[in-house]
Amino acid sequence: MRSDLRRVLITLWLLLSCHAVQAVVRYTVSLADPVRHLVGVSMELPPGPETDLQLPVWNALYQVRDFAQYMDSIRASDLAGNPIRLTQVNKGRWRISGTAKGARIDYAMFVNDPGPYGAELNQQHAFLNLAEILVYADTTRYQESQVKFENVPQGWKVVAVQPGPAAEITAANYDLLVDSPVEIGTFGESDFQGRCGTYRVVVDSARAASILSRIVPPLEKIVDAATSWMNDCPFQTYTFIFHFSTDGDGGGMEHAYGTAITVSGEEIDNDLDPFTSVSAHEFFHLWNVKRIRPQSL
Fold it and tell me: Domain containing 253: what range?
């Protein structure tokens, strides 16, 4: 009975809040501990009712991935710093009380999973799929959300797939926010104009300049052919983020305004066919699945 009443109250709050000016849900991500691969996260909730917090259990791959196993402590306080009640409901879900005047949730995540489906922080770079490190609240999932990055090592740059300033990403809601992977490091970059929009090509490699000179020309052909075929340009800026493996593993993950792709460094030197294949595949997801999909999804 109590849980049913709680759901009714949360639903009522959401309906009422749709007609009110909504505060922004703010996240801060700290890169202060790359040696231990620990990312510090703070989430600031605007005033509201008791709610549940959820860390997603899935992102990118066709399987439950259980990101909560990488969480290293979690605590909650009011905005004055006083502890408030946080009760674990299950492995990746918590109930937070005392949020009438706002709340702050602090926790750390171990991130050492390379590739386009992972989250990684080390002394060379950071690559973050935000769904793997950011919890959301049931009551604010569809409110404007913002994340900024702190303790970024000197000389590192930040690039995000989401349009807008990368150092402080803002999106209309949580789902759009976490559909924007972030690369932070000393990457190389080359931009070009297509038949529509601007394309950013980001390469995380010590030899980024030579790689960019090889991969940008085929990318220009790929995007020109696809946008011509679809006769559509649902973006102003599209971002390719490339990583290179030494063990032959690779793959890509599509996002609404870009893609993250890992390919073999050896293939870039000897045979561009695997590179062009995965790049064309992920770019076409800009329409297929991301914007055109079965109603059931």
Answer: 188-284
Q: Are residues 207 and 178 in the same domain?
A: no
Q: What is the largest CA-CA distance in the chain?
A: 65
Each residue's pLDDT expressed in tens, for the chain with a length of 297 residues: 555 666 655 555 555 554 445 689 999 999 999 999 999 999 999 999 999 999 999 998 889 999 999 998 899 999 999 999 999 999 999 999 999 999 999 999 999 999 999 999 999 999 999 999 999 999 999 999 999 999 999 999 999 998 766 678 999 999 999 999 999 999 999 999 998 899 999 999 999 999 999 999 999 999 999 999 999 999 999 999 999 988 767 899 999 999 999 998 888 888 899 999 999 999 999 999 999 988 887
Q: How far apart are the C-alpha atoms of 208 and 216, rounded to whole Å?
A: 11
* Single pTM value for the model: 0.90
Determine phi and psi for 155, rounding to 5 degrees: 90, -10
